[in-house]
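Side project, low priority. Logging it here so it doesn't get lost.
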Amino acid sequence: MHLCLARGPRRLFLRTPLALHQPAPGQPDQVVPASWTLTLQGLAAATEYIAAMTEVVGVALVEGGRVLAARRSSPPALAGLWELPGGKVEPGENPEDTAVREIREELGCAIAVTGWLNGESAISDVLRLRVAIARLTAGDPVPAEHDAVRWLRAAELGQVTWAGADVPFLAPIRDLLGTM
């Protein structure tokens, strides 16, 4: 189903899954009832919300040549797997603020983001993971949402079973730790 947002030769359509496009020649239009209204401001807000909620920030918290790994306790499919702690970017939030907030909520400590690893990894069809590099600025990590945390040196990264989305970042983390 397509939703016509404008009339005329330059029509835009909202199409699932969450993409704007122009119709191809010969593509049928969908008539929208007059009671439906969609402003550009509303569309921009919806697009920002959707884009923000698809980004997840993991945090490579580095200290003393080690990185902090956190063991998931839920959902059941991921319980027992290790990950870089973090979470979803909320609407209107920038990824660096997400990293700081998530570590405060999940581990009860404060961090400063010092950089980002290159690339991203798919968590699902609608979620993608980026990884921030950070250092502790206050407190010690105490898990609130995970059942364990562990500091790992580069040679120890393979000693735990990682969540699939984190695996592509292990080589760059190993390289980063190797330079410390």
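Brief comment: The CA atoms of residues 104 and 176 lie 23 Å apart.
Revisit when time allows.
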